[in-house]
């Protein structure tokens, strides 16, 4: 799972109002090179929650992103390269995404997040699924 | 690795021999091929469209999303491809199929787009979906195993009717959706519903097999049609049901039902 995807996921538990960003628990990170495409990065920039990306990249061991970013930075190649690396090349391969409000864990296995909920799961009972053995 | 490179260079669709499989995952079938043929038929428009975010709902074997990524060229446009399925085996198989073709999409095990709807709202430029559309008893919908790949409940509409509002929420202002439907799904009524949400529709591919007649419908936001639809709904409210029904049965002749490749999209 790329950090771009982490940036697009929120907790889907019924009743949760503050489900973004999901906390990351890391077991394994992999890096996979991706062809650099400045246009894509410029298109995506406005859609990214910057702080969530910075925090996520630090948890995955990459500390090069600036705390704050603004569109004018997109003119800098150096900035674009770092943005590219954090957004697309760092993958959470094994670990979990954790709902910030209920602490419910969504496992990430072989790079695939599993957002399936149990039937009738909601904010009141989801703690019971903390270590849910979801398939 | 050589074949991967050559496959990436030349092929515009996924190669069946490199599509991964699992006994509980839907194998590429007539409907999958019809959907990919529709995408190929519209490929030039898609290339001009330059989608930034493309998504498949219910990716199964990964045949469709892999084909889309191949035909649009991963790197040339640098799009973000996402694929979801409710069946964890399908999502794994999709990942293998993508890897075997040297393309990438982010894959997520989830119900339709649950967990993505908040942040991806209004960002998706292309959605492709081959939903479970076969009319079945309602109990078979979403049950475990391969049945859930096709079981669509009453008129085959259970999952389709859940997907439509989600798609409307996810699609960007210039968003397009390609959807497989069966005649039994009442595609004209689906188009009418989408029209009320502001979408125009046309059939990109129509195919009859021994068992079923498939339509691949393309939807796109069209602000004129929204106005017309609202007017129509107001008018219809006063009209006897019988007249509304007969109007729907003539659906293919209604003006917003655009045939062929020559119309706007
Ligand atoms: C007819 S198959 C199509 C598979 C593949 N896209 C193809 O064209 O070959 C429908 C797929 O939708 C998946 N599906 C069914 N219900 C779903 C849901 N609620 N959310 C996401 N995927 C679902 C099934 O697991 C199955 O893989």
Brief summary of the model shown:
Chain A is an alpha+beta fold. Chain A has helices at residues 3-8, 38-45, 50-59, 77-89; strands spanning 23-31, 90-98, 105-109, 112-113.
Please, could you describe this protein's structure?
The complex is a heterodimer of chains A (135) and B (265). By secondary structure, chain A is of the alpha+beta class. Chain A is 27% helix and 19% strand. Chain A has four helices and four strands. Chain A has helices at residues 3-8, 38-45, 50-59, 77-89, and strands at 23-31, 90-98, 105-109, 112-113. The mean pLDDT of chain A is 93. In chain B, helix 2 packs parallel to helix 4. Chain B has helices at residues 2-10, 30-41, 43-49, 63-72, 74-77, 88-100, 117-120, 158-170, 187-196, 223-238, 241-249, and strands spanning 53-57, 80-85, 106-109, 124-129, 171-182, 199-208, 213-221, 257-258. The termini of chain B are far apart. Chain B has an eight-stranded mixed sheet, with helices on both faces. Chain B has one domain: Vaccinia Virus protein VP39 (Rossmann fold, 3-Layer(aba) Sandwich), CATH 3.40.50. In chain B, 40% of the residues lie in helices and 20% in strands. Chains A and B meet through helix 1, helix 2 and strand 4 of A and helix 5, helix 6, strand 3 and helix 7 of B. Bound molecules: S-adenosylmethionine (SAM). The site of S-adenosylmethionine has 25 residues of chain B, from helix 2, helix 4 and strand 2.
């Amino acid at each position: 799972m790329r950090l771009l995807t982490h940036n697009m996921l929120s907790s889907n538990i019924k009743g949760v109002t503050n489900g973004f960003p999901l906390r990351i628990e890391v077991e394994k990170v992999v890096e996979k090179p991706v062809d650099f495409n400045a246009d894509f990065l410029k298109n995506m920039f406005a859609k990214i929650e910057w702080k969530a990306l910075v925090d996520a990249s630090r948890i995955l061991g990459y500390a090069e992103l600036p705390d704050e970013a603004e569109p004018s930075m997109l003119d800098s190649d150096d900035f674009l390269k770092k943005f590219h690396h954090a957004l697309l090349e760092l993958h959470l391969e094994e670990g979990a995404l954790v709902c910030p409000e209920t602490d419910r864990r969504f496992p990430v296995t072989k790079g695939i997040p599993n957002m399936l909920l149990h039937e009738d799961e909601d904010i009141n009972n989801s703690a019971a699924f903390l270590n849910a053995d979801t398939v | 690795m050589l074949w991967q490179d050559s496959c990436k260079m030349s092929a515009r669709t996924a190669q069946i021999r490199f599509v991964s499989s699992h006994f509980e995952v839907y194998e590429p079938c007539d409907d999958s091929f019809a959907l990919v043929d529709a995408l190929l038929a519209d490929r030039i428009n898609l290339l001009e469209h330059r989608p930034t975010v493309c998504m498949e709902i219910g990716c199964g074997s990964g045949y469709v999303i892999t084909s889309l990524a191949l035909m649009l060229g991963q790197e040339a446009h640098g799009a973000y491809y996402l694929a979801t399925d409710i069946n964890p085996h399908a999502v794994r198989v999709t990942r293998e199929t993508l890897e075997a073709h040297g393309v990438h999409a982010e894959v997520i095990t989830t119900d339709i787009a649950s967990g993505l709807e908040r942040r991806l709202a209004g960002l998706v430029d292309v959605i492709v979906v081959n939903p479970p559309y076969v009319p079945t008893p309602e109990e078979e919908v979403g049950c475990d195993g391969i049945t859930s790949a096709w079981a669509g409940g009453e008129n085959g509409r259970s999952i389709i009717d859940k997907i439509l509002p989600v798609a409307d929420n996810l699609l960007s202002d210039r968003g397009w959706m390609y959807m497989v439907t069966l005649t039994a799904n009442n595609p004209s009524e689906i188009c009418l519903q989408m029209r009320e949400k502001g979408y125009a529709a046309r059939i990109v591919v129509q195919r009859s097999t021994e068992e079923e007649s498939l339509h691949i419908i393309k939807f796109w936001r069209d602000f004129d049609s929204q106005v017309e639809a609202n007017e129509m709904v107001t008018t219809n409210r006063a009209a006897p049901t019988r007249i509304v029904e007969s109007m729907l049965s003539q659906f293919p002749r209604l003006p917003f039902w655009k045939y062929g490749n020559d119309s706007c999209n």
